[in-house]
Structure formats: C-alpha cells, structure tokens
Amino acid sequence: MTNKLFKIILSAGFYGAVFFMATETVTAQNLSEKLTTDPKTTTGVLKNGMKYYIRPNSKPEKKVELRLLVNTGSLMEDDDQQGLAHFTEHMLFNGTKNFPKNKLVDNLQSMGVQFGADLNAETGFDTTVYMLPIPTDNPKNLETAFQILQDWAQGALMTDKDIDEERKVVLEEARANLGAISRLRKKFLPPLLNSKYSDRLPIGKEELLKTFKPDVLRRFYKDWYRPDLMAVVVVGDVTAAQGEALVKKYFSSLVNPSNPRERVAYGSAGYTKQEVMFLTDPEQTTTRLSLNFSPRKTEADKTVGDYRNTLVEQLAFSAINRRYRDLAAEGVPPFAAAQTGNSSYIRNYQALSLTVVPVADLTTALNAAVKELLSIEEYGFTKDELELVKKNLLSYAEKQYNERNTTNSAAYLGDYEENFFIGQAAPGIEKEVELYKTLLPGITPEEVTAAFKKLFSKEDKQKFFAYVMSSETKDALINNDATLLAAIQKSFTQKAEKKAEVAISTTLLDKMPAKGKITKVEKDAKLEATTYTLSNGVKVTVKPTTFKSDEILFTGVKKGGTNAYGAADKATVSMLTTVIETMGYGKFTPTDLSKSLAGRNISVDQSMGETTNEIGGRSDIKNLEGLLQLNYLELTEPRLDQNLFNGYVSKMQMQLKFIKSNPQAAFVDTLVNVMYNNNPLRPMVIPTEAQIKSISPERAVEIYKNEFGKADGYHFFLVGNVDENTLKPLLEQYLASLPTSGKEPKFVDNGLRLKSGNNKFMFNKGTEPKSLVVMQYFGELPYTEDMALKADMMGDILTIRVIEKLREEMGSIYSGGFSGSMEKEPYSQYVIQTQLPTGPESVDAILKQTEAEVAKLKKDGPEAKDLEKVKIAIIEKRREDIKTNQYWIGKLQQLQFSGNSVDRFLNFEKEINKITVQDMKAAANKFFDGKNSFIGVLNPEK
To answer: What region holds the Peptidase M16 C-terminal domain (predicted)?
Structure first.
C-alpha cells in the first residue's frame, strides 16, 4: 500500500534539499520493526467496538476537525438498496433526534460553519465519511458538535416525509453526473472492476431511488451504522483528556444489533484474458486510452520492511512518470500526457495501469508509452533518474518535518482514515522522515527495476483489460475493438531503447546580475511589516511570521495586463505565460529546469490579468536565495524555442478539437460571446483554430519582456519565516538588479463592457435531461471597500436562501450558490452571479423563485438570522486565515499596492458588525436596480 507521505509528495511535486545517510546496516537490522501509531495520537476502543483517534493540535487556534468514519458503503447494499448508502448520508443532514429537519445545518451556520464548504460527507464503495470542522471560541460548540456526531451515528429520524422530499435532491445529484463520461463508464466499469464493485456504484439506480420504500432505507441504517464499524477522529485545539472524555460521553451508549450482519470483504478475481473496448460518444471531448493489468492482493504497511517495499515500488512509478512528462514536453511530443500508477479501484487490491492521451494518433501515443515500460524492463532504471526522485522525496519530507509544530489539523485526518479503513500504519512525520533518511539511500536501481518487473511481467501482458474513450472512429488506425487489441499486442513487441543520460546544470545563473542597493526603509508598526525601496525603483514589503516553520511566500505585482493589447494580440496575451513556460528560460528547457531544481523546494510562476501582471512563488528557508535567483532568471531570460512552441500548439489543437462537443463548454463559450456582443476583445473561453495559429512565439517573447522583464512599477511581497538580515543582500542582488525602461506602467480600460439591459439567452445542446441556469446582475457604482464587502455578503446571503428554497424546499438543485464582488479597476463595477445545475422541468421555477428572493431582499432586506450567519462565517474564516502566510501575502498587496484602508482592515470585525439589515436592503436596491442583468439557460436538444 502507498505510504501517506509519499502520496502527498507525488501529488504536490515539491522540491527541496537532500541529506543522505549511510545507514544500510541500521536498515537491515530494523526491517522487522513494527510501525506504531504516532505517539502524539491517543487511540482507543470503546466497549461497543467503536474506535477513536485524538490528536491535540493548535493550528489553527480555536478549531477542531471532527470526522465520523463508517466502515460501510454501497457494497453493503442489498439488491433493493442500490444507492441507499449514499441516500443515508443525505438523510443525516435532514433530521436527527436532536436536530429535526434542517435544524442541524441551521445550527452550524450560526457557528460560522458553511454547508458544503465546511460541513460535508462522502460515500464510496467501502466507506462513508462525515466531516465537521467546528470553531471552539464558544465552549458550547464542541458539545454541540459531538451531539451531532452521535446523532449521525444512531440518531437519524428518517421520517417518510423527509425521505420523500430528499429524493429530488439525490436525483439532482445523480443528474449532475450525467453525460458522455457516465454513459461510457457504464460500459467499461463492469469488465474493469470485474467484481461486486461494478454492481454497486454509490450513486445507485435512478428508478430505485424514486420508488424505494422508506423501511428499506431504515434497514440499511440499522444494519450498518453501528459502533463496531465506526471510528471518531478528533484533531485540533483540544486536550487529549477533553477529547477522550467527550468521545466516551457521547459514544459509549451506542449499541450494536443483537444479530449483526457480517461485513463481507469483496475482492477481485483478476483478468483471465486480453479484453478491450473501443468506446465512442459524440459528446466525448478527448481520446484517452487506459491499459489495466490484473489486480494483486496487497497488505497494509505494518513493519519497516513493508514500508521499504512500498517505497521501492513507488520510486519506480515516480521515475516512469518523470520520463513521460519529459516526452510530453518535447517539440514533437508522442502524447499530450501519459501516466502509470498502482491503481486501487478495489480495497486491498492494486494493479499496474497506464493512461495515455494522444496528440495526433493513438498508435504513436500507445507505442511511445509502452516503449518506456519495455525499456525499463530490459535496461532498468538509471542511477541518475532515481537520484532525482530521491532528492525530491527527501527535501519534501524534511520540509514536513520542519513544519511539524505548525501543521494544520486537517493534514492529519487522512492518516487516521487509512489506518481505520485499511489498517495502514500512521507512524507520524518524525518516524516517516527517519525512515526516509535511513531507507532511501540504500535502495538501488536494480531493486527498483526488479519491483517494476514484478508488475509488468510476461504473464501480465497476457491478461489485461484496456479501453479507449473517444469522440471519433474514422481517420485513425485504431478505431474499433479489433484494431485496439492488435495495436496493444504489437506495442509489446517493440524493440526497447536504453535511456540516455544527459548532464544538467544545477547553476541557475551563469553570471550574477549587477548588484543594486536599498535606498529607503519604511517600518509599518500596525502591519508589522517593512517596505524597502530599491535603487531601480522596485518596492519590496516583508512581513516575518512563524505561522509555518519552513515556509516563505513571494509575490510581485505591477500595473499592465491584457487590456493594454488589442484584438490582434488577444490569443498571445491570453496564453502568454503558458507559451513562455513551454519554451523555457535561459539555457533551460522546461525539462532541464525541472531536473536542475530537483532537491530544491522552490517554484515561481507568472500570470497576466486584465490590468495587472503578477508573480507567485514559494520556498523553504534554506532555498530563499534560489527562489530569488529563479525569479530573476524567469523574468529576464524568456527562451525562444520554435520547436517546443510547435509541440505546445499541436497539443492545444488536439485538446481543443472536440471540446465543444461538451454541452456545457459550448454553452459557456457561446454565452460569453453573446454577453459581450461578440466584441473582439471579449474573454477567450475556448480558443479557435485560427486563434491558436495566430500566436507568434516571437511576439510572445517580446510582450513578456515588456510586461514582466522590466522592473518599472513592481511591488514585491515576502511573507513567512524570513530573516531580514539574510534577506537584504539578496534583495540588492536579485531584485534591485532587475532592468528598467523608464516607462511607468498604468491601468488600462480598453472599453470592454457587458451587454447592457436585461437580456436572456437560451442554448440547446446535449442529449441528457440536464440544464444549467446562469444569472448575472451587474453595473457600475463608485467603488468603496464598504460596498465591496456588501457585494460579497449579498452573495453569501443569497446562497443561504438558495440552499433553503431551491434545494431543501423545492428539491430543484443539488448544489449551487451565489457570489458577489466589486472591482475598482479597470472601472468601478460590481457583479452578483450564480450557476445552478438543474433539470429542464425546473428552470422556470428556479428563475421565478430566484427573482422572488431578489425582490424580497430589495423590499425587506435579508432576514436578521441570515445576516448574522454570514457575518459569523466571514469573521470565523478571517480569524483562521489571519494566522496564515497565504492570507497576509494577499492582504498586503490589497493594502499597499491597491490602496485599501489599513485602519479598516485592523478594525474589520467592528466594520462588518456595524452592517444592518437596512444597510443590506439599501445595497440590494443598488445592486439589483433592474437596469442590467443577463440570464443564460442551457437546455438539452429538443
């Protein structure tokens, strides 16, 4: 099984420092050592069989993450219950012993817990997880939260009325998943899973969801919601004794059935032959091949030896996928993307899988992907490629260790879930870093190659299941089952080629830039920040923090943006930073740069908005200089590479070829065109073939140098665990040295506006009974921070009303809500908007009810309780966010670059609490003045 830290590293892709230790003797002596649960975690089992995990953690303050884990899912359903494991989850939010009907959601909203964003649940084949993050500034909140968990465990009311009302919501959730993927999934899942899993998809069967008798649902709840199949997880600002006392108080009284049903563990029979399916659908937007070999029974990591074996296996996948990324970044890429993995569709089973997305033809993509597997099979992994992987693993592990005392509570939850559901060890970051240090140096390329060969053996090639999802069947060598099978068989017969090693420079800058100076230092006592003015005019604001022990965030902003360019450059500026990144910087191609940065936990990227050019980056403490070096390299040396640019264009053309086959994508693209009266400067949603061809790499480099490479107008921000004495010479070396043009940048209003008046647009596309309602209320008002806050709050208030009316009362939607915003540049404007997925039969009712809610806000303002919920939610989120570097890096930019009020920021709670129902009523009459609105409706084809 995959160890938790390795999975985080693979998904995050971070880089950092490497530290090897010669520990082969230690490793050999300790392979039989049992892995125990992190000693900072209190675990136990109540007399009724319920397990618990408690970990005190003060980050964030005054907040506790609670989870109720239930070792059941759709696999436990009887034939007449298909979909009811998931339905049960819904019912636990709709009426329990102590919180009838919607009182549960109402109570939590009053504490600042938002439905969907915070409060949620998920149901799978084997598992059900209930999530409840709870603020504890009020001591009563924690007691209430445990009462909710107890009610979820065995206090559901499940009245006939509540069940019947919830049918509509569950069916709306099922409707949201309809489309090409769901139609194709129904075909390939049975042979792919080849087990009980394929008969028990969690969403269930539509007809059964409409017609099941309430007692059938209650039977599922009674059979499977029992303490011997449950665990409660408590992580956060709570003592172990307090947490344990609450667990015992609320869960000791739970009882198991007198004759409990056996929980059967379903496995996989594996594949017995070579089987393929070539599947097409007119709404499928891409071609994708998935090659899956027979699943193998696996065991959770219980010992150091198990952990090492898992590490060896996962090193192989990481190295293979690096090869695939390198190939996809070439000038003539054989595929747009390819990836291998140890897929685990079925609990305690894993299988080698290969996924490939072609650029041009599927044959080339398949052959290139398989050829790498054959190369590894014959020649093995190289020492150098595994060293790159090891560097990344060790650097990220070190960073996690350095931040062990400032880790957010939510980061621990996954470990406890895996421990409960599959028995995976949760030894804690201290032990995992020790294991990484001692185990990784001793793992050889020969070991990793041998581990891979076990997964890609001669027998595996004789038994597999492969499928292709595509929108076309013509003009391709692979276009049916027979040609697909023949192509896969032939790909296995290719002659393997040995991977060549290429030396990569680890020095980012061959020549140090001419050093500048700090010319001015301004201390801001209120913000506890310092602003440095450099000799080239650049400003740098620094705020040292200890929110994270080993994190430094870096941003830069200047006036500019896409608005400064006309229609001829539209495609180029819209994709500018991606085009530049595709070609690389200085002497480095993207692949070379990635290898050069291995073992260094740094990243920098650029983006271009309508009126600003922005830079974002991060590093750990030891790599701060590398971060600023990388920033200098990327800003001053964009690389022109026609070959790599051509590769990017070919991938884009393939990806966009069938994108408008998707009804929602086609709708949004057309909607934006209509909303902006087909203005050539309108936002580019889906680039056309002509727009892609209009991009000039030479012009892209020219614009990039003008927008990002000149220091005029830049304001940089650094927030995190930074020592200013160490930082100051680095600012002079790498930021004060940025070249200038002597031309001050400015905000540009290019005159682009939404179509005025009250407009409605109807669009018909798609075969499934799915609709999407998009509504925007917009206009121009003088910008104030007060009105911007009220716009945001208006969106939150309408979201509460949407949940109550459209979801809970009408059952017309599963998800959806409003958002509100106000912008100062390029002109003072506001927009209140929503997207509501629904069925065509509900569109008119939704529009009518939404208009009624807006009219009510204008006439009476919001209900006082709704306004209070919104205030509390915003304040609670701010209290948590204000202890993070991410919050401050954005806030400093608002205050010092955009000119927001520092005093208002420091007195925010006072400002928001001053807002009354009458204030929001007045704001509603300004936002919804009846002058400008746009309604777009996507309906299926008639």
So the answer is: 212-393, 710-872
Amino acid at 893: Q
Comparing CA positions, the residue from 150, 146, 163 lying closest to residue 90 is 163
Helix then strand then coil, in percent of the chain rounded to 5, is 45, 20, 35
- How confident is the model over 573-614, as pLDDT tens digits? 999 999 999 999 999 999 999 999 999 999 999 999 999 999
Which bin fits 899, alpha (ψ -120 to 50), beta or left (φ > 0)? left
Contact 538, 757 (CB under 8 A): no
Tokens describing residue 789: 């806050």
Q: Which single residue is written with the structure tokens 């909710």?
A: 148
Amino acid at 471: S
Determine the 3-state secondary structure of 354 from DSSP. Answer: strand
User: What domains lie within the chain, and their CATH numbers?
Assistant: 4-26+270-404+415-491 (3.30.830.10), 49-251 (3.30.830.10), 518-661+684-734 (3.30.830.10), 758-939 (3.30.830.10)
pLDDT tens per residue, range 327-361: 999 999 999 999 999 988 899 999 999 999 999 89
- Give CA 822 to chain center in angstroms: 26
Sheet of 715-720, strand order = 518-524, 529-534, 539-544, 715-720, 552-559, 612-619, 602-608
Q: Residue 543 — very low, low, confident or very high, per pLDDT cuts 50/70/90?
A: very high
Among candidates 749, 741, 742, 754, which has minimal Cα distance to 562? 749
CA 364, 365, 368, 374: dihedral to nearest 10 degrees? -110
Tell me the C-alpha distance between 800 and 880, whole Å.
22
Cβ atoms of 813 and 839 within 8 Å: the answer is no
Q: What are phi and psi of 510, to 5 degrees?
A: -70, -25
Q: pTM for this structure?
A: 0.93
Please state at what angle helix 642-656 crosses helix 576-583, rounded to 10 degrees: 130
Q: Any residues with CB less than 8 A from the CB of 49 and at least 6 apart, and which? A: 226, 227, 228, 229, 256
Give the integer Cα–Cα distance in Å for 561 and 643: 27
- How many helices, marked H, and strands, marked E, lie in the chain? 34, 24
Tell me the pLDDT band of 22, cut-offs 50, 70 and 90.
Answer: very low
In 10 A of CB 225, how many CB atoms? 21
- Token match 């921000």: residue? 717
The answer on pLDDT for 23 being more than 50 is no
CA distance 811 to 872: 27
Handedness of CA 22, 26, 28, 33 (dihedral sign): negative
d(CA 28, CA 488): 41
